[in-house]
Amino acid sequence: MYRTTTCGELRISDVNRTVTLAGWVQRIRKMGGMTFIDLRDRYGITQLAFNQEVNKEVFDKANALGREYVLQVTGIVAERYSKNTNMPTGDIEINVTELNVLNEAVTPPFTIEEDTDGGDDIRMKYRYLDLRRECVRKNLELRHKMAFEVRRYLDEQNFLEVETPVLVNSTPEGARDFVVPSRMNPGQFYALPQSPQTLKQLLMVAGFDRYFQIVKCFRDEDLRADRQPEFTQIDCEMSYVEQEDILNMFEGMISHLFKTIKGIDLPKLPRMTWADAMKYYGSDKPDTRFGMQFVELMDVLKGYGFSVFDNAAYIGGICAKGAAVYTRKQIDQLTDFVKRPQIGAKGLVYARVEADGSVKSSVDKFYTQEVLQQMKTAMNAEAGDLILILSGDDAMKTRKQLSELRLEMGNQLGLRDKNVYSCLWVIDFPMYEWSDEEQRLMAMHHPFTSPKPEDIPLLDTDPAVVRANAYDMVINGVEVGGGSIRIHDASLQQKIFEILGFTPEQAQQKFGFLMNAFKYGAPPHGGLAFGLDRLVSLFAGLDSIRDCIAFPKNNQGRDVMLGAPGVIDQSQLDELQLKVDVKD
């Protein structure tokens, strides 16, 4: 055996025991006639002690070692003279009697420590070294634990895990597909699945009743902190259910994860309509760890000669408790923040509530103290509070700008604590959203989402106001899962395709397999998918999902370790009957 124990399990009760360990050299400390080495494996770190007077040969070998050498050592467990209370093994050390170098190592390009000196690019290039760091390894251990608990919960609820194909057909309505050429079918392409949506619906038609899969999905989208080109879903579907059944089932799953992994008992999750989420937070994934809800001020501030407000379609404000101490420089920085191109506001109006209750505003000359007091009352503001106001000629756009300002204030005031969790369901989404680029209605979720039964008659008269039987779970301002009740009636599905601009021929070409399946008796069904990467990153308190993925891509969608994507040989292109024409 290479080892009789791991580097993380020895304790004071093991003193005088002879053991064999194997692992990597974390650090070396040379102190005259004594050398100490921290030996690391997946389970922890154990200090090794080498004494020149006791065993000079082994001592000399230890002094010739370098960082990340792979060792096998045998020795006797001894009580440590200078104990380290920060380590589980800090009460003991190993007096080494035998040392075997299993593999030498060149000096790594960065330190294998929690506070490493390696930047993102170098750590991604040498990801196999980055994964040796305890903080990164713990993220993957958490991911394993979460996947295990998901499987355990769903198995107990009679779900079956079923694998679906990775090579599928390309479908419209959604992100760009990654496509794969077919050598056996020249000029034709597979697509990698954005999700197993139609396949899990077919499993419901097949009578599987309750399906799940922890599955890779692929979307050719621009990347950000919570998005990768390939990601992992906890994909679920159920038959003979309504929305309430699904919300209860998967609220139970999330509660199970919080309890078993974090030791947290979640309260009953509140529910918020999409309309209220946009009205009070300007976002369909509101961060409810803190208040600062929007207050509409049209009736209070319009009509007093301040043209910016008088000509606005929407005026809204937030009240930042205790922030009246903000300096003019800080407020100017907030103004610059909302004027950034990615936010797009034209300016920011502010008002301070003074200690005596009076209100001082950046637009004092347009408003009497009486009007400003009405605003203070509407905002539920008190002495020491700061009121921040945005306006614009598009209500939805301005609310989204105000949402960014609210989140920034939440950050600055320390209200977005990663150790606090606020979960909710957002329900009653619009069925459609207008696309200026396409000049038509687009499915807000996907074409298989069922409308609210009471809204079905509006499909013929005013489809833009139809609500979807759809729902998202939001935790701390992050959408961690979403889904819907599906359409199971072929005629209703055909009507939805028509509204989305598909001709009968196009619908048959793209989705004929599903439409045909519905003819054979499709049960009422629905489901949802959780983002496993997002859930793990939230539980771990990470800023990016990359840190809980073993081998992630960078912000350009590249794997700098593997050198992917890359060019392929001309012989491969010839086999596929493809020509590559790269534009400058």
Count, helices: 17
Please state the structural category: alpha+beta
Largest sheet, in brief, is: 8 strands, mixed
Distance between the termini: 58 Å
- Major β-sheet strand ordering: 6-9-10-22-21-20-17-11
Could you list the spans in which at least 5 consecutive residues all have pLDDT below 50? Answer: none
Number of strands: 22
Shape: globular
Rg to the nearest angstrom?
A: 30 Å
β content, as a range?
Answer: 15-25%
Helix content: 25-40%
Mean pLDDT, nearest integer?
94
Could you please describe the fold and organization of this structure?
The protein has an 8-stranded mixed β-sheet with strand order 6-9-10-22-21-20-17-11, with helices on both faces. Helix content is 29%, strand content 24%. The chain has helices at 56-63, 120-125, 127-130, 134-156, 197-205, 243-262, 274-281, 298-301, 307-310, 328-338, 369-379, 395-412, 458-461, 490-499, 504-518, 532-540, 570-576, and strands at 18-31, 34-41, 44-51, 70-79, 92-103, 160-161, 179-181, 189-191, 210-218, 230-239, 271-273, 295-296, 314-320, 349-353, 359-361, 386-392, 423-427, 432-435, 440-443, 470-475, 478-485, 525-531. A hairpin with a 4-residue loop joins strand 18 and strand 19. With 584 residues, the chain is α+β, with helices and mostly antiparallel strands.
